[in-house]
Fold each of these.
Amino acid sequence: MNKILIVDDEPNILMSLEFLMRKENYDVFVARDGAEALDIISEEKPDVVVLDIMMPNVDGYEVCQSIKGNAITEHIKVIFLSARSKEEDIKKGYEIGADKYLTKPFSTRNLMKEIKALVN
Amino acid sequence: MQGVTVDFFYIDNMKSKRKMTLVAVFVLFFMLLNTPFLSIPDGMIGGLPALMLYIGACWVILIAVMAYFFTNRNRHKN
Amino acid sequence: MAGWIIILISLGYLGLLFVLAHFMDKRARVGKHLIKYKWVYALGIPVYCTAWTYYGSVGNAVNDGWEFLTIYIGPLLTMPLWWIVMRKMIRICEVQRISTLPDLISLRYGKSLTISVLSSVLIVLGIIPYISIQLKSITNSYEILAYGAYQDSNMANLFLNDTAFYLSVILALFIILFVFRSIETTDKHFGMMGAIAIDSVVKLVAFIAVGVYVTYVLFNGFGDIFSQIDKETLGKFEHLPESSGIEWFFMLLLSMSAIMLLPRQFQVTVAENTNENHLKTAIWVFPLYLLLINIFVVPIAMGGKLLLPASIDPDSYVLAIPLMSNKEGLALFTFIGGFSAATGMIIVSTISLALILSNNVIVPVILKSLEGRNIYSSLPLRSRRLAVFGILILAYLYYKFIADRFPLASIGLISFAAIIQFAPAVLGALFWKDANKQGAMSGLIIGFVVWGYTLVIPTVIEVGLLPESLMHDGPFGIGWLRPESLFGSSLPFIAHGTLWSLFFNTLAFFAASIFTEQSGKERNQAELYVDIYQYSTKSAEKLVWKGEMVYQDLVKLAENLLGKDRMAEAIDNYRQRYGETHQDGVVDAKFVNYTERLLSGAVGSASAHLLISSMAKEDEIELKDVIVLLKETSETARLNEELQYKSSQLRRQADELEEANERLKNLDKEKDDFISTVTHEMRTPLTAIKAFVEIIQDNPEIEEQERSRFLGTINDEIDRMTRLINQVLDMEKLESGATTIASTTISPYQILNDSIKSLEHLILSKEIKLNQQFGDDVNSVEITGDEDRLKQVFINLISNAIKYASEEQPFITIQCETDQSALIISITDNGRGIKKENMTRIFEKFFQARDQTRKKPKGTGLGLSISKKIIELHKGTIEVTSEWQKGSTFIIRLPTSSYIQAIEEEYEQNFNSR
């Protein structure tokens, strides 16, 4: 069973994604901010991290950089989910190693498809 | 030989209008406190010599004008 | 009364005066005046009122009616001119370090030693009799007090048995100990000013005391006295016949010039001035003083005439009345008043005459004879002290041998007539550039010759020292040369002398000035005097000086007179202000002038000039040098001014443009930021909505309960979006000014209460402890504003407090109180608080959205910005104080309507009175 970590500070978004992932039988972990996310990543080594960017304490970019900068975790796939839709934000996301960058609001169907593609 | 110019109203940092006012006050009171003005008051008013009241009034008014001129107005003008 | 009591009390008074003066001097030297110096200055000027005023006015009133007033009306009339004439004199004397009238004249007229010595001698001749009559008045009043009448002056009493002699010695010692203690580069004598200011108060209070006693104790007020006096005396006061107009006019003229030019007046008004603005006080205090000291002259005169036997001299009424009614205390106080009037006059006159004699006669004459060799620094001090003794002894001898033969008043007036001879030269110096040395000299000489002929000789004849035939037939029998009716004119004695001396003086002054040439050196000074306000800040630079002088010579000379330390200090000052001093070589004109002015402070300007020119090979300055320089400076000054104005205008415009640009840029950036933040904030609820909608669409099988939970969430998020949109629009409206707030009279306290009520259920449900502290009078406070908007603010702030209050023991405090001007509402929570660095930014739009340090609350990030805007529209303020981890307090100040109205009225008044 693939492990998926969802990181967002909006409880309603977390709730909806958690519901969808469980339905697809992933092992789902949730985090409300970047610091919490880093703890779970080092403990659980999820296969995919769905990551918001603007979060308190440690933001999404930093979480991604820490994943991709560490040999133990660099295999973990990262999908950015962000309200930041500007060209330079997206470019920056890919530059630091994201596997996918989706802008909010996104289609959940599309998201699930991307995750499926990444875990296989 | 240069011409004779008596530069009484030279312009300095003080407004010349103000200076003219001062000179005018001087001329006015100089006339008021000389004859023939001074010969006009005559007899007694309310038991006191009219001349005394006249001189006293001029005196008080001049003090008031000076006090007004040099204490009050400066705050706005300078 | 026993003589020794009077003497003891007088000495006690003098001693007290000296101690006070010494104390004031000490304080003033360190800049800590006991009283504001402007009052001391204003009260120093009444040194004008001497014993002659004190005793003589009454006598004069008895004999001649109102005529005595001319002595005071003249000075009164000059008051409007003081700001023009006296201020200019003060400025010139300050810039050129002048401390005597002969300095002022001689420096202007070609730095002429002849004029300096001439005018000094004339002044001293004119004033010594005046000092002697003060001695006479003290002795007279002492005798009246001690023996009830004058004693015949007894030659056997000369010197050792004579009070007047001891008095002269004591005063001389005072001056030497307190005033001429050391040579200073400053010429201010604070101790002397303090002493005469005290004298002024004492003599005024004493005279008024007698006046009140006579008018209100012995009689029932002014009306009572006037109703009792005999017809003949009353007639003198009822009316001023036009025939006395001429005498009146000349008396005014004399006293007008006296108040400005008498040596003692010049000393206190010009030389002792430390700030031109002190004139503004003196200009109304001095005439007020004159009015007060004259109010009771006529009542005392009439009271004396009614109560005292005809044999008593009216000059002594002031003392005789209290003595007659056995009021010894009052009599003694009156005596002290007269004593202070006399000593004040003697002290200041002697000081000013000693300065004149020393600076303008003794030192320059000695220097001239030394030809620059062996100048020693104690010379000026010694000559001043010598002059003090010389003057007082002369005054004493004059009193002893001559003064007794003349009436008090006539000596004073003849002195005045001597002083008015300086008026043309002084006014010319101040206002007429073409006036010259020859003019001043011929005016003074002719003026004094006529003065002596018409005023002094008749008195000498009266005393019997010259044959009376001179008076009746004229010299050598020439009728039209009779001293009392020159050219057959028939005028009152003083008016006659004044008219002719002043006429010939002025005529000679103008004629000689017009028909002779001015030297370049003199032109230099003429420009500097007349246009002093233009040059006063940098006079040292504006002078032409051609010559050669070695730095070392000049400095050595100055060190001899001033001392090494003072000279070193002065050179430091110079370097700071003007730069180099050319230490090894030849100095420039600037430095020469600077040193000359320094020396002037110590030895007077005439001597200073002599010293300088004895050292240098000074070339004659030609008129054209001065004119070229002045043309240059005035032309450059004008051009400079124009340029400065233009460039400042340009700079201002550029600044304005840049500012506008910056404003636009900021506005643009702000707008961009705002839009991107708003869209960002909208994406979040949209994302949640979209996600749940898709979930419901794609999963028809989910349970009913779950579906309705999802639908509820969708609803919440839609609400959130709606709120955001509404607040964005609200903000926009408030910012653009599209909405104006209502302006009705409302009670903020009431609105606060309503707001708390509407949130009560929320507070209860969260189990928050609410603490309300309301002041007593807050209910009555009314402001002009918008009820709904204020409610919006209060609800917003209280909701925030509820939201952020600590989770364990939530606690909110709401306070409301008022000071006179405003209602103050503060709302405190015990939550996490706000970090210091965010305190000022908390009211920014979407600040919390940008704040990466905290979990996102369910707010739009606009609430506080909108609240701030609304409070500002109510002319109020909102601010926050907070301690991290302890809680925050939001404080709102709403000014009351009455306060705002008061402020606006004040503003309007200020605006209108401009």
Note: The radius of gyration of chain B is 18 Å.
Amino acid sequence: MEDILEMITRAVMKELENLPPSDAAQVSASPAKGPSQAAPPAQEALRDLSGGALVDLTSDAMVDLTSAAMVDLTSAAHKAVPTLQNPQNPEALAGMKRRTPARIGVGKAGPRLRTDTMLTLRADHAVARDAVFRDVDPALLGELGLFSVQTLCQDRNEHLTRPDLGRRFSPETTNELKAKCRQAPQVQIYLSDGLSSQAVDANARDILPSLLDALRDYGITAGTPFFVRFGRVPAMDAVSEALGAEVTCVLIGERPGLATADSMSAYIAYKATVGMPEARRTVVSNIHKGGIPAVEAGAHIAGLIKTMLERKKSGVELQL
Amino acid sequence: MDSELLSVGIDVGTSTTSVIFSSLLVRNTASGFTVPALSIIDKKIVYRGGIHVTPLLDESHIDAGRVREIVAGEYAKAGITPAEVSTGAVIITGESARKENAAALAASLGEFCGDFVVATAGPDLESIIAAKGAGAQQLSQQRGCTAVNLDVGGGTSNLAAFCCGELCAKGCYDVGGRLVRTDEAGAITYVSERLRPLLEELGFSLPLGAPAGEEGLRALTDRMASLLGEALGLLPVTDRLPPLQTAGSSAFSLKQKIDALSFSGGVADYIYHPAKDWRRYGDIGLLLADSIRQSGWFRCCNVVPPLETIRATVVGAGSYTTTLSGSTIFYSGEGLFPLKNVPVLALDPGTERSCLAGECGALREQACWFLQQSDADNLFFCLRQTQNPSYREVGALAGALAGAAEELPPGQPLLVLTRYDFSKSLGLALWRLLKGQRPVVSIDSVQAGEGDYLDIGKPLMDGMAVPVVCKTLIYG
């Protein structure tokens, strides 16, 4: 009996210790009110904006709020904080949030998203749009020693609205490719912006040398790498025909989602031809910091290309 | 496309020895559009052996010959030959692990049982294995709660806590059901030295040969039960607890509130189902079960039934010790496997940073020192900080590791383990640098730290991943 009493006392003491000072004061002043009910609505809204910190509007600290509120809404650190108030099991929620970049544990304001969630969503959408409309950094292409060619698209708008033009080259461009590149290589690797120039900027520096070095280790000869602006995936078929490569592999920016705009895919095909079925392409997607790291993707794709050359197949025909 | 691994679990405990076989189902869980991700998706127990009394030659030696006979008998009954077994663990637990010939027994059993069966021990690891076998990890993951398992055996009580599926505390104390033993006539035949301070505190002694009085023994087991309450953090800790912490184990320290408490081990059955005659096994196990069930802290807890009681440890050893590496890895030849008992050299953050800058001096020095200290002829370089390295950094790391590898005896493979996913790229870079001077194994996505030993099995499913067992070895 004695140890039960002692346990209860200890438990109560522990709970009191764990309460933040202000909440503890509120509890002792008006035990019937929970800490969240005690906060006036204006302060509630501010709590939303600053990600949980309660700010007194009437105090001088308001001045600091502007600088304190200058947080990067799209940062992982900002998104890691659950904004759901009073979750029944905070540890379980934190555990779930660690496992997914999805917007869980955000709570709601009536039937709508809360201000913080809404702003973050719009910030993420802005990042995605930027990734699509931007060009790949020319300095990067110089650093990697890549020359540039363009599909039949004349500008970004056409690239987005005319996918059919993004998969073809003019006769002049085809001749340029033939003139500047090694003919009939075992494998032709090239980069393309696709729907995210940012993905190329984020990954090219690491994936390209990793892939080319690994291919050399396997004794596979790669053709001359280059960059295709305004490219769609099937442009690889035209490249394959122009250069007569046995395997063609394009490293291309994926259409950005609201989780990341850095994601790149590798589409790889054995003896690709214009108009071939899509099923003949093998794809490795999700190449970015939160997916498969670029250096590791390069090493993996090299192994995949090796298998493809051995079995002379790609896509769904290539049972791994 | 699935692959099955037959796994054996063998537990040689203070009081009982048992064997189980389980089948681990391995599948590539990634979609066809991403890199493969092999994982163990199902574990099924295919054979449950009997519970045998652990044969002893005397107080300090296990009868290795008879243990081997028991194990061989179970293999025969299950209709399984050692050659069919591809993974598993022999675990020598509780007081048995402190017997003088424990290490030799583990090694000989390991060799007999299959090509890649590891010998493993250490009280903390035992706590984790038992808790997994009892289902505490699964429960905490499914319910998003804190689940604690208390495995009360003959010599020790092993505690492990999981919070949302993650291990959050572990520990082991010398509290068990066979620390006092009696003969058929009810006379005391053995009292563990570890109980002396408790008996002094209680103010009586248990002389050998004297009849065992129920009242005195109950007072003792009541105190033992309250010590378990202290260990769990449910009662204020007294001076008696720290000295009872098992040698080589951690002190169990849990910040979270216990949402679910389960019991496993030989004593557990009698906690859940009271027995009438406490003298049945000639020890204090049943009295201890009564004392635990009747203690205040027990009644305040949400006590849940475990998946396994007496077999929790052996099921844990058979089903939960094998993990898989990441699915993009590098090795220069299949003949290198299995690798057994390779000690881990965990790089401190400072050394890892200097390696990323391409400097190998500090690492080389550590490798040299480590090989001398551990008296091993190889080691696993374990990188735990680096995440998402650039290709330039991978090259620098490879340079530093290749430099440090010169400290290894000639012909020994260079073994590298990274916590995060970049081992294939690193392995290829190492292979390129070493130009065939020595074999290379580079794997990732396995957590290991200082003091751990690794066993690596033969590659699975077209060589995409390797089975890994991470263990701590502490005997005697």
Note: Chain A is about 45% helix and 10% strand.
